[in-house]
Amino acid sequence: MQDKDRTRCERIVVICRASGEDLGAIMVREGLALAFTRYGADYVADEHRACAGRRSLRAHYCAAARDYRAKRRATVLP
After folding, report:
1. Tens digits of per-residue pLDDT, 13-55?
2. Closest Cα to residue 34, out of 48, 20, 53?
3. Beta 21-22 vs 17-18: how paired, if at all?
4. pTM over 0.85, yes/no
5. Cβ neighbours of residue 10 under 8 Å, at least 6 residues apart?
6. Residues whose CB falls within 8 Å of the CB of residue 46, separated by 6 or more in sequence, listed in order
7. String of DSSP letters for the chain
8. How far apart are CA 43 and CA 39, in angstroms?
9. Within its chain, how far is the Cα of 50 from the centroid?
10. How many Å from the N-terminal Cα to the C-terminal Cα in the chain?
């Protein structure tokens, strides 16, 4: 593991590697995870490739949880 950043709550954000390969990048590229851009744009290009290749989650419309919640909050009446 390689420390990348810390959250505002002091949680450690890491990059996990196996045999020198970034496991997060592999998961996003294969459509098995979404890029989490709060701490950087490292995996955005991989996510675009997964979308273009319609791989796994990206074979169907799949909204990121943060986008779903934001849209839901915007449409809920008080």
Report:
1. 788 999 999 999 999 999 888 888 877 788 999 988 888 888 8
2. 48
3. antiparallel
4. no
5. none
6. 25, 28, 29, 35
7. -EEEEE-TT-PEEEE-EETTEEHHHHHHHTTSS---GGG-STTHHHHHHHHHTT-GGGGS----HHHHHHHHHHH---
8. 11
9. 12
10. 44
Q: Tokens 């709550």 sit at which residue? A: 9
Retrieve residue 27's tokens: 């998961």
Look up residue 7 and give its amino acid. Answer: T
Q: Looking at the chain, how many residues does it have?
A: 78
Tokens representing residue 22 in the block? 């970034």
Both structure tokens of 54: 């319609």
